[in-house]
Each structure stands twice: as structure tokens, then as C-alpha cells.
Amino acid sequence: MSIRTTCPYCGVGCGILATPDGTGGARIAGDPDHPANRGRLCSKGAALGQTLGLEGRLLCPLIAGRPAGWDAALDLVAQRFAAALEEHGPDSVAFYLSGQMLTEDYYVANKLMKGYMGSANVDTNSRLCMASTVAGHRRAFGTDTVPGLYEDLELADLVVLAGSNLAWCHPVLYQRLAAARAARGTKVVVIDPRRTATCEIADLHLPIMPGSDAALFNAVLTALADRGAVDHAFVAAHVAGFDAALAAARASDPGTTGLRTADLSIFLDWFCSTERVVTVFSQGINQSSSGTDKVNAILNCHLASGRIGRPGTGPFSVTGQPNAMGGREVGGMANTLACHLEIENPAHRAAVQAFWGSPRMPQGPGLKAVEMFRAAAHGQIRALWIIHTNPAVSMPDADAVAAAIRLCDFVVVSDITRTDTTRLADVVLPATAWGEKSGTVTNSDRTISRQRPFLSAPEGPRDDWRILADVAGRMGWGEAFGWTSPAEVFAEHAALSSIAGQMGLDFDISDLAACDYDTLPPTRWPVGPRRRGGRFFGDGRFFTPDHRARMVPVTPRPPAVATGPRRRFRLNTGRIRDQWHTMTRSGRAPALSRHIAEPFVEIHPVDAADLGLEPAALARLSTPQGRAILRVAVTDRVQRGQVFAPIHWTADTAPTGRIDALVASVTDPISGQPESKAAVVTVAPLAPAWYGFAVARTSMNPDAVYWARARTETGWRCELAGMSPPADWEAWARSLFGLPDACCLRVEDPGRGSLRLAFTEEGRSLAALFVAPEPVELARDHVVALLGTAGAEILAGRPAQGQPDPGPTLCSCLNVGRNTILRAISERGLRSVEAIGSAVQAGTACGGCRPELAALLAMRPEAAE
Ligand SMILES: Nc1nc2c(c(=O)[nH]1)N[C@H]1C(S)=C(S)[C@@H](COP(=O)(O)OP(=O)(O)OC[C@H]3O[C@@H](n4cnc5c(=O)[nH]c(N)nc54)[C@H](O)[C@@H]3O)O[C@H]1N2
Ligand SMILES: Nc1nc2c(c(=O)[nH]1)N[C@H]1C(S)=C(S)[C@@H](COP(=O)(O)OP(=O)(O)OC[C@H]3O[C@@H](n4cnc5c(=O)[nH]c(N)nc54)[C@H](O)[C@@H]3O)O[C@H]1N2
Ligand code: SF4
Ligand SMILES: [Mo]
């Protein structure tokens, strides 16, 4: 029987049908009835079945790294938090949470910290993600409200994607947009310093200088005013601050965007002359030391033109995590309260305290993420609980954050698996995982969906909400935390939201307090009589005291740290198509490592030539905060002076690939959000003595200056490099593979300095190592596939003469290689992505590689070889 649930990855919030296979796994399919995806899934969602299973799961609590019982662990946590409160007061404790927690988990954590421990030191990884949007929304609308719906992207005539790589980060929403564009000719503009996969559907790509978005949207506002595109009636009736915002816009210099005048003028023409405009924005806007101002510069344009809250119009912040929106709803951040109520507002605090019947409440905001870890390093935080996030990897200045966790008196980490962060904890608590737990999440367009269990949880792990409630009980607050199910927690959260409704705010879902939780279908709020079409602000009523929206004057600022002769590269960071954050789950799926299996840095060909960096060489990046070593990808997708690196690698998967070790913890003064995309780095070649590639049935822990490992269908693969060769390669390899006795085959080419070793048992290969003085050239997917099935053949490193080499995988769902696709294009004269699909199937499952297929089609035939 299939169970309806929701994808645990991105904020699109796709519905899933999970059919357990009876042996701990499940078949995963898109839910045709879910309004977000109507049956579609992206590569990550489709591969969820490969991430189930108990390998690597935490199954019992750990105290000081040693297995312990639940009672001992929970007693210790309760006792240490109580002691900190007793001796040092409420400011000495903190929670660091996650936009991936279920609403029920989040609600319990927020109630415990704010209402019972009496501190507002509860912040979340949403600080690294959505905080600038939250602050911008509150400045403009009075509340943190996303006005629009997904349908608006399909109803718009112009969709502007600002700092969003929608094709890779919100793939199903991107596909909806691509389909609408094909059907009705929607114009698409992408504003991004890089030429991303999303640009494949762009009618115009604006390769903006990093951080200069506010100047661009100020130019839009000025153009709206100069070309008669301001909706004066709407502004007069519903908006305050127009004149000051326009004056600030006029004073700012569009030249700082670095855009060609011709491109800028096309964009201004389209924006001014199109009524139905949706501006989608994401981390290219938020993760900036001027992120809040960038958000308001965008909102200003929609307010001035009255393009908000009506079909096909509006600013649209797409949330990253599956429950980023739900976290905002429960108020799980240091500067929010609950249900979009304000922590600074005494009446709001009193109402929530009365509802909770709680003993104490903080009197104002608490420490935001960056401040929180600094306070932990300085001994101000005595007890810290980290839940469902991996800050030793994902926070800026990650080495300093790891040190802070080590320095803090007492740190608890709740996770499902060992991570860079759990290794630093005093107490580790094993949580139930997706597929085992029950609750709700809210996606980017305010649709609340159920996550339902479809597997029985293993012995040991417990639900996050229950762990929190058990600690609360041990601290003497059992009555207020006495729920017996997530349904009861949800009912309390929904009931509390009636206060927000009574206070005239947006988030009132009290009609759901008595819903049938088990069967609750995807439900978009506002619900009940407040529904009115599901959008906000079409009626011009905002949630400020006078019900007018505020336009905010914005004076653009460049990124906080300037480039200079010593550190002349701007480091942009972000995501790849097939991995999720620190890869603790997506990294388990072999299908998802086929596309990209190691960390890399994209650099412009001219810069690469200047620095003497060859494609596939290794580069050393450094900043005052830290260092990294990454594979070089030479490409004009990035501009000169800029480099791009993905965020996903950890001490566990590629120790020199932890990109946040390089990023300074500079924040936006209003939102506290770090500037994660604009560090300033030096780049230099690394000159290793040897490069290597290894495959093995079991995991590898190499002793090498550079390594990056990934799972494969046949075991593991690992990229390697070393500064000096070991004295005895065979001995080194035996220890790498843990194969002291296997038979060793050896092929050496002393002339080229290359060496190939295969270890076999009964004619089957168990492991192989390829070493060369240059980056190792091999048909890697072929080698991976041969492991275990062939002995000596594996050492050839590529398919035998006459057999085609499929090349690196491009379509990860159907495992179709780049060479196969290129051959089909040239031999069969294919002209469209559809034709590629019929010929070689690529792009016909999740469709996530379609932008890359289009890019191959666009290549000149001679370049394609
Ligand atoms: N595959 C995948 N999907 C994901 C995630 C994942 O880990 N993997 N994570 C999810 C999460 S939590 C989030 S928050 C979202 C993030 O989704 P996105 O925000 O779309 O993703 P990013 O790659 O972080 O950044 C988007 C783009 O911002 C650009 N950028 C950098 N600086 C600037 C600038 O100054 N101005 C402008 N206009 N653009 C700039 C970058 O080049 C990048 O292409 O993705 C979600 N979806
Ligand atoms: N330089 C740079 N840094 C960035 C970004 C960037 O673009 N550039 N993006 C930032 C953004 S937008 C985000 S959202 C963050 C993401 O960064 P993180 O939140 O640190 O990344 P995740 O890997 O998603 O961490 C989730 C953790 O929760 C664990 N987990 C999974 N399921 C459960 C569960 O049910 N219960 C519990 N208790 N644990 C569970 C996982 O194993 C994992 O360790 O990174 C931020 N950092
Ligand atoms: S787009 Fe992909 S990752 Fe995002 S919710 Fe849908 S299936 Fe999951
Ligand atoms: Mo995020």
C-alpha cells in the first residue's frame, strides 16, 4: 500500500507516494494529487529510496562518544541546562535549530526555550538562508508574508529570477515555469553573476556584479517612475514612503551592476511594460551583507507598480528547506515569537505567555546564529543544543564554529547519523528519520503538507519533538509538554495562531486545530473565511498599524570585504543539482554521485591561464579564515575575477573541500544573515607529486593531501592527490583498501610515471588504484561499473577498442553519459531535447538534466567532440 508523504529536501514541497517493500526500503513516486508537483519529482526526490536503510544511522545516545541509555542521556541534558539556568541565567543557554525540522518539533523547541527556559537564544540555520527575506517582508508588509502562489509563475508574462538557480535548486518549480514558458511565451530574465543551468530558459541573462542587486532594482524603480508605470492609485491608497524610496533610487548608480547598457535597457523595458511580473528571489539576494536592503529594493518595485497579490504578479521568495516556512510560522528564530507575532511587542509576548501558561518569557530578541556561536566560544553560552543541522560545515568561518562547539561547556547534538558536528558534541541523541516520523511542513507557497511514516523506526532513535518534551518533563515542566502525539502538538500550534488572527496578523490557522490530522490533505493557508483566493495584499491591506505597505529607501552597498591585489577573487558559493547540503542523506544515494562526485572551483579561462591552472588540476584557495583544495573547472560560466565553489563537502567526504572554512562571518546589520556568497580569496595552483583515482567495495580513509570520496553502485570511488609518493605503492594501497592478502595485479608505465594496481579475489576485482603525475584520465564510470565483475580488465581504465565510452553521467536517473548524448546528437542530427529523449532516453525521467542537454545542443559541432 502506498503512503502519501512529502519530500524532505527543498522548499517546493513535492508530494510523494511511498510504497514500502517490506524489507526496510520503499518505492518512491511523485504524488499525482499534490498541488506542488502533480506527480513530478526531481533527481533528489526520485533517489530517496536509496537513502533509506540503516547503514551509518545513529541507534543509541552517545555521552562523550560512548554508547549510553536514553535515561542517562536525557537526565544529563536536563541537568546541565537546569544548572546553566540556575547559575548563569537564561542568557547562558541556547538552541540552534533547522528549517528541516517538522513544525511540531520546531514548536516544542520554541516553546521550551522561549516560554520555559525564558531565553530567546533560539536561532536556526534559516538565519543563513531566509533571514534577510523575513526582515525585508516585515519592513515592507508588517509581517513575514509570502504574497503569491506557485501558479503565479505560470500566469506571469515576465518572470525575473534574481539570485536563484531554480533549475538546480527548485527543479520541479523550474519545470513548471519551463512548461508555462513553452505554452505561452513567458519571458524569463535571470540575474546571476554566473551563467547557471537556469539560464537555458532565459530570454535575458544579466551577469550582475556580486552584491549589486539593489542598484539594479533601484534602476527599475526609477524607470517605473520615469516611464509612467507607477500605479499611482495603489500607491496613494496603500503604500507609504514612495517619494523617499524613489529619491534614494535616483541617487544610486546602475553602473555598479557592471551590466551592459543594452542589456539593462531591455530589462527595464520589459519590467516597465509588462503588467504580470513575478520576481523570484533566493540566496543570491539573501546571503549578503546588504541582503535586507536588496529584498526591499525588489519589494519597492512591486509596490510602486501595484503588482502584488493578483494572479501572475508579485515578489516571490522561494524557501530553500522543506520547512523553512513552517519554522517562520512557529516563530523559531531569535527575533520572532510565534505565529508571526513579534517578540519586541509586550502585548504579543503577554498573549503568548498567557496561552502557554508559561513561567517566564524573554523581554526581547536573543542571539542570532553568528552571535550565538561567538558567545559559545567566549563562555557566555554554557549549554547549547543543536538539532537537525550541521553548523561545523555550513556556518561561515566554519573552523571557528567547530572550535566554539569544542570550547562550549556542554553541547548536545540531535541527528540521524554521525556528522562533522556530532563528533564535537558532549551528548549525541539519535533521531528518527524521514519515512519514520510524522508531522507537517509548509512549502514556499504556504501549503502545509503531512510527512507520514511509512517505515517502522529502528530500535533506539526517538522523534525530535518527543526528545525535547522529555527533557522539558525532566526539568519540571511535564504538564505543559505532555502531548502524546504530533497531532496534539499541531493542534496546540494551530490554536495558538488564533491570537495572531485576533491581533490582525496573517498567520491564523486556528480552523485547522480540530482537523483530522491523519488525513489532512495539502492545505494552503490562509484557511477558512480568510482564504480569499489564497493570495495576500491584492486588496491593498497590509499588516502594518495603518495597513499601508512601506517602501524603504535603499542606498546600495558593495559586499563588506573588498577584493584587493592580494586577494583578488570573489568567492561565490552555492549548490549543485544532485546533492543536498552536507550530503548526510543525498550522499548515500549512488545515483546522486554520478553527476558530480567531488568538490570543485569554477574559474574563468583567462584567470586560469594567468595562474597557470590547467583544467582538472587542483587549486589551493585561502583567506584569513581558512584554506581549501579544490578541483579546477575552467569555464566562462563565471566571470573574470570571480570563482564559484559548491557547499556540500565535509570532513567526512572531502576534508579540504569544506567551503565555509574560507568564508568570513560578516553579516547583514538588520537580518544578521551572513554574506555567504562574497568572500575574498587567493587562488594558487597546488603542485602535487601525484594524482590518483581509486575504486573499492568498502569506504576509504586515505592519507593524502587531497581526497574526495563518493558512493557508487559497486562501492566507493575516491579522487586523490599527494605531495610525495609513498615508498611502496602496493603497501600504501593495501592499507587504503584494508586488503592485506588480496592478489595484486600491477601495470606500470615508467616512461609516463603512471601506475595501476588492481586487487582481486577469485578473479574478481575488489579494489583498484590509478596513479599518474598528471590528473588521472580514465573512463571513471566504466571503471566503477567493472568493479567486482572483472579482474585485470579494470586496469585498462576504459572500454575496449571498438566499444563506446559513455562518458561522465549527465542524466543521473537513467544513467546516460555525456559522450553517448553527444554521439547521438552528431550521428543522428538531433535538434531538440525531446529528440535526445527519444533517441537515448536522457532527460525523460525527472527532467533535471534538460538544461544541460540544451547546452550540449547549443555547442558547435566541432566543440562537441
Ligand atoms: N540541489 C539542491 N537543491 C537545493 C538545496 C541543495 O542543497 N541542493 N538546498 C535548498 C536550500 S536550503 C536553499 S536555501 C535553496 C537555495 O537556492 P538558490 O538560492 O537558487 O541556490 P544557490 O546555489 O545557493 O544560489 C543561487 C545563485 O545565486 C547566485 N549569486 C551569488 N551572488 C549573487 C549576487 O550578488 N546577486 C545575484 N543576483 N545572484 C548571486 C549564485 O551564482 C547562484 O547561482 O536551494 C534549495 N534546494
Ligand atoms: N558558503 C555557504 N554556506 C552556506 C550556504 C551557502 O549558499 N553558501 N547556504 C546556507 C543555507 S541556505 C543553509 S539552509 C545551510 C544548510 O546547512 P545545514 O543545515 O548544516 O545542512 P544539512 O546537511 O541539511 O544538515 C541537516 C542535518 O540534519 C540531519 N538530519 C536529517 N534528518 C534528521 C532528523 O529527522 N532529525 C534530526 N535531528 N537530524 C536530522 C542530517 O543528517 C544533517 O546532519 O547551509 C548554509 N551555508
Ligand atoms: S523539487 Fe525535488 S527536492 Fe524539491 S521537493 Fe520536489 S522532489 Fe524534493
Ligand atoms: Mo537554505
What can you see in these coordinates?
- There is one protein chain.
- With 865 residues, the chain is α/β, with parallel strands linked by helices.
- The protein has 27 helices and 34 strands.
- Helix 3 (103-117) crosses helix 20 and helix 4 (131-141) crosses helix 13.
- The chain starts with a strand and ends in a 7-residue tail after the last helix.
- Mean pLDDT is 96; it is low at 860-865.
- The protein binds ligand MGD (2 copies), iron/sulfur cluster and molybdenum atom.
- Residues 129, 320-321 line the site of molybdenum atom (MO).
Class by alpha and beta content: alpha/beta
Enumerate the distinct ligands. ligand MGD, iron/sulfur cluster, molybdenum atom
Shape: globular
| Mean pLDDT level | 96
The strand count comes to: 34
Major sheet characteristics: 7 strands, mixed
Strand content: 15-25%
Kindly state the percentage of residues in helix: 25-40%
Distance between the termini: 48 Å
Rg, nearest Å: 27 Å
Number of helices: 27
Q: Reading side by side through the largest sheet, how are the strands ordered?
A: 5-4-16-15-14-6-7
Low-pLDDT runs: 860-865
Layout of helices and strands:
Layout lengths: L2 E4 L8 E6 L5 E5 L12 H4 L15 E2 L2 E2 L2 H19 L4 E5 L5 H15 L4 E3 L6 H11 L9 H5 L2 E5 L3 H4 L1 H14 L2 E5 L12 E3 L6 H14 L5 H7 E2 L1 H10 L9 H13 L3 E5 L1 H4 L4 H14 L9 E4 L6 H7 L15 H11 L12 H9 L5 E5 L3 H4 L3 H10 L2 E6 L11 E4 L8 E4 L4 E5 L12 H14 L8 H17 L20 E2 L24 E2 L18 E6 L15 H4 L6 E4 L1 H7 L6 E5 L4 E8 L7 E5 L32 E7 L4 E7 L9 E7 L2 E8 L6 H9 L5 E7 L4 E8 L2 E9 L7 H7 L22 E3 L4 E2 H11 L4 H8 L9 H9 L7
Parallel strand pairs: 6-7, 6-14, 8-9, 8-12, 9-10, 11-20, 12-13, 14-15, 15-16, 21-25, 22-24
Antiparallel strand pairs: 1-2, 2-3, 4-5, 4-16, 17-18, 18-19, 21-26, 22-25, 23-24, 23-26, 27-29, 27-32, 28-29, 30-31, 31-32, 33-34
Helix pairs in contact: 2-19, 3-14, 3-19, 3-20, 4-13, 8-10, 8-11, 8-13, 16-18
The protein binds ligand MGD (2 copies), iron/sulfur cluster and molybdenum atom.
